[in-house]
Amino acid sequence: MQANRKSIKEWAEDERPREKLLLKGTESLSNSELIAILIGSGTQHQSALEVAQSLLSRCKNNLSDLGKLNVSDLMDIKGIGPARAVTIAAALELGRRRQAGVAQKTIVKNSSDVAGFLQAHLKDRTREVFAVVYLNRSNKIIHWETISEGGITGTVADPRVIFKKALIHNAVHLILCHNHPSGNLNPSQADKLLTQKIKEAAKLFDIQLLDHIIVSDEGFLSFADEGFL
Questions:
Q1: Res. 144: pLDDT tops 90
Q2: Does domain 107-226 match CATH 3.40.50.300?
Q3: pLDDT at residue 211 above 80?
Q4: Which residues lie across from 72 on neighbouring strands?
Q5: Quick one: pLDDT band at residue 101, thresholds 50, 70, 90?
Q6: Which of 4, 24, 69, 153 is the most exposed place for a label (fewest CB within 10 A)?
Q7: Integer Cα distance of 44 and 37 in angstroms
């Protein structure tokens, strides 16, 4: 440790992340200070705050990019071992679940009502994920399930699986959804064909397909809003 470098314990009390939070509240802390609290303590050569700053630099200070890091990615940062990586990953997941939980209480009246729920679940995924939101007669979300990962084709997005879950949960409305990790929100021809296939099959079960929503860091696209249904 450099002789002229102070550890966090030697800082003024109101400058230490934990004490600052207690004195001034969570909103007074920077992103790096909040992460430093999760990290807990520094290493022989870095304070917890410096480790946090290194982590944010890896993500170009973008919290959306931070959310995409898995435990292995986090452990690539000097000063972050398995325990610290797991703590950070758990905190990120709690944030996603909180956002999704707020949205799930909403009665879905339009695409934006459900977009926040979908983005909370899918926008940080680095692989393409296909999922279905199941709704009751009042258009309240009653179930959510990932159907497949890695792509969208007639094979992996099996209508039999989708409708089996719908019957189990007594759903009368469906919203299909998937993410585009590339950020491009334009639907492919395969996306459109699959949507029509599910829409027609749904009629056999007296179930209505309300929408197919694509999400990414850039926002979302609604098939219903764009006239693709």
A1: no
A2: no
A3: yes
A4: none
A5: low
A6: 4
A7: 17
